[in-house]
TrEMBL record:
GO terms for molecular function: actinin binding; metal ion binding; structural constituent of muscle. Gene3D superfamilies: Cysteine Rich Protein. Transmembrane segments: none annotated. It is found in: Nucleus. This is LIM zinc-binding domain-containing protein. It comes from the Eukaryota. GO terms for biological process: muscle organ development; muscle tissue development; sarcomere organization. InterPro entries: Znf_LIM (IPR001781). PROSITE patterns: LIM_DOMAIN_1 (PS00478), LIM_DOMAIN_2 (PS50023). It comes from Phaedon cochleariae. PANTHER family: MUSCLE LIM PROTEIN MLP84B, RHO-GTPASE-ACTIVATING PROTEIN LRG1. GO terms for cellular component: nucleus; Z disc. Pfam families: LIM.
């Protein structure tokens, strides 16, 4: 088999093969690096300033001068404001493209299936859509001024042609003083053509009925995705999604779902379902004392049962106050027990409590701080604050002694040096003579609480504060001691 070298693409400018190491691509053609320059001024080009036209390369300025609009005011600056017609490019000295000429013949499509302008087949790469009809890119232009169109400025006329917005306004828009977008459309003559302006089409959304409970709640018709608006999981037509009373068009921000299954604007919802009476709602429009009675208002509102005991909980699992089941939305915690938010108040004065104000009493109830101090705080002169200095029974009860007084004693020499019971790590205080409970770690004489800075171990195995230790075991005589209380002659 004879050897066949690989075929390489030809450069449109010099018609020689282009290899990968030196290729430049523009408009689907491959050029040599040295050929990649403007066909008029010879300026070297790159991907940012190249413009291709029929396989010929130009810089942006030369392309605008040769193929851009002519006349006063066109172009991109003072350099482009020229009045020439491009005659210098039409003589014998004009640079002509060496690229092969492409055939302009178009394969005709069957009637009604091709481009409405030229009748040829329209492929996906060159397709432009308008009202479901496919145009060629080159045919997608205004029917009057031949201006190129896109999806933003295209307008379809009643004659099934496409126009730019200005030509559409001149041809089919309203006439007379004040109409249009400028002087060009301010015309007072009759229609330039015999066609009348397009009429507004009223779409009947109830023409296609849906199954019961599946269609639009307002008209009962089938709701398709392009016109769907959602409210509380129900589908509405965009046309039907308006206030039930004032027919104001609604959106997801100002729509309010009423208990009757309808949608309302905020104003009508407040008038119909909001609170009534002087001072309620958001303004003078809502300050109404007439209309609905209290019975009608109460009957239209959702039912609420304030009785927390209606659902009983198993013993030991419900609210300690009422015994009802406690759910997460109304739960308040205190010492591992769950309370209703309604029951979470002081057992004495019934003041509402929170996690800061609540005090758990030894009676398994909760109290505010003042009531807790009155019931369980220390009594007598100097204790508590003013509301707790009371002695209603004539004699103040004895102060509760927190030391243990029951249970098994520890082995000799292993328990607390004061009470003799076992000492655990969480309540342990250490001195030279042994371990002590934190509550027993006080001066043997004056009962002042001690710590490592005030601790003095006595020779009798007890612990003392500094003052008591000095009086009991310190030196005697004039000048000794820590103050007047210790200057004794005993």
């Amino acid at each position: 088999m004879p050897f066949k070298p690989a075929e390489h693409p030809k450069c449109p400018k010099c018609s020689k093969s282009v290899y990968a190491a030196e290729e430049r691509v523009a408009g689907g053609y491959k050029f040599h690096k040295t050929c990649f320059k403007c066909g008029l001024c010879g300026k070297m080009l790159d991907s940012t300033n190249v413009t291709e036209h029929e396989a010929e390369l130009y810089c942006k300025n030369c392309h605008a001068r040769k193929y851009g609009p002519k006349g006063y005011g066109f172009g991109g600056g003072a350099g482009c404001l020229s009045m020439d017609t491009g005659a210098q490019f039409q003589g014998e000295g004009a640079v002509l493209s060496r690229a092969p000429l492409l055939s302009t013949s178009v394969a005709k499509a069957p009637q009604g299936e091709g481009c409405p302008r030229c009748g040829g087949f329209v492929y996906a790469a060159e397709q432009m859509l308008a009202r479901g009809r496919a145009f060629h890119k080159t045919c997608f232009k205004c029917g009057d001024c031949n201006k190129g169109l896109d999806s933003v400025n295209v307008t379809e006329g009643p004659d099934r042609e496409i126009y730019c917005k200005v030509c559409y306004g001149k041809r089919f828009g309203p006439k007379g003083y004040g109409y249009g977008q400028g002087g060009g459309t301010l015309q007072s003559e009759c229609f330039a053509v015999g066609d009348q302006a397009p009429k507004t089409t009223l779409v009947d959304t109830a023409a296609i009925k849906a199954k019961p409970g599946q269609g639009c709640p307002r008209c009962g018709g089938v709701v398709f995705a392009a016109e769907e608006v959602l409210a509380k999981g129900r589908q509405w037509h965009r046309k039907c999604f308006k206030c039930r009373d004032c027919t104001k068009t609604l959106d997801s921000i100002n729509a309010c779902d009423g208990p009757d299954g309808e949608v309302y604007c905020r104003t009508d919802y407040g008038k119909k379902w909001g609170p009534h009476g002087y001072g309620f709602a958001c303004g003078s429009g809502f300050l109404q004392t007439d209309g609905l009675t209290e019975d009608e208002i109460s009957a239209s509102r959702p039912f609420y049962n304030p009785d927390t005991t209606s659902i009983k909980a198993p013993p030991g699992q419900g609210c300690p106050r009422c015994g009802g089941m406690v759910f997460a939305a109304e739960q308040q915690l205190a010492k591992g027990t769950m309370w209703h938010k309604k029951c979470f108040n002081c057992a004495e004065c019934h003041r509402p409590l929170d996690s800061v104000l609540a005090c758990d009493g030894p009676d398994k109830e909760i109290h505010c701080r003042a009531c807790y101090g009155k019931l369980f705080g220390p009594k007598g002169f100097g204790f508590g604050h003013a509301p707790t200095l009371v002695c209603s029974e004539g004699t103040a009860p004895a102060v509760h002694d927190p030391r243990p007084n029951s249970g098994r004693k520890a082995a000799p020499g292993q328990g607390c040096g004061r009470c003799g019971y076992s000492v655990y790590a969480a309540e342990q205080m250490i001195s030279k003579n042994g371990v002590w409970h934190k509550r027993c770690f006080s001066c043997s004489e004056c009962n002042n609480s001690l710590d490592s800075t005030k601790l003095n171990d006595g020779p009798d195995g007890e612990i003392y504060c500094r003052g008591c230790y000095g009086r009991n075991f310190g030196p005697r005589g004039v000048g000794f001691g820590m103050g007047a209380g210790t200057l004794t002659m005993a």
